[in-house]
Amino acid sequence: MTRTAIQLYSLRDLEEPIPSILDRIGETSFDGVEFAHRVGQTEPREIERALERTGLTPAAAHVGLEALEEDLSETVELYTQFGCDTFVVPYLDDDHFASPEAVESTATRLSEVAAALEGHGIDLHYHNHDHEFVACGDRTAMEALLERTDDAVGFEIDLGWANVGGVDPVSLLERYRDRISLVHLADAETSTGTPTELGEGDLDLEACLDAVERTNAEWGIYEHDRPTDPIRSLSDGAETLERLG
């Protein structure tokens, strides 16, 4: 059974410390949390205590590629203090996917970081938006990236952004199921790329959730990039996934 979590980026506008936000999440049906932003501003022991009292599990942490290249040991030390052993590079801009040569360079950098993290017992993944699905020769840049990296680099597929990028999220889930243990459950309007609440955009949510279960992904992670009401989005996301799960 796929467990559910929420990406903390969805709650970044809450003017509360991370432990307080974790308490809010613990009152919902989410099983875990994916970290991003402000983690370094909180004592790790306080995060650990919040995870203990809420029963939430760290699904992963979004960490920039440059931080991993420049401060790998410090980053590993920070997150492992509260039991997080999976990192995700959350974004690389268009230049990294502009040509086959750019994709090759990107793949090399990700592979080198993945190899370094492996020695610390940390898994690395890459998280897509829509621009990775630009044409790159006879395939998309995302396909090229996955072909040029091995299983050491996992694929955290964002269903909403893949849909905006013009590809079928269900087909991607099935094709790369061996590389996918983390799935971002996000929705958006494809014509504008505007994020929406789950079920309010153009994503075929029920078909995607069925595919997530078939592919045995470990985590389904709710995210809303630009919620107008983060607290309401937290409860709506949890309730939608509980109802459809």
TrEMBL record:
It comes from Halostagnicola kamekurae. GO terms for molecular function: isomerase activity. This is Sugar phosphate isomerase/epimerase. Keywords: Isomerase. Residues 26-242 form the Xylose isomerase-like TIM barrel domain. The lineage of its organism: Archaea, Methanobacteriati, Methanobacteriota, Stenosarchaea group, Halobacteria. The keyword Calcium does not apply. Pfam families: AP_endonuc_2. SUPFAM superfamilies: Xylose isomerase-like (SSF51658).
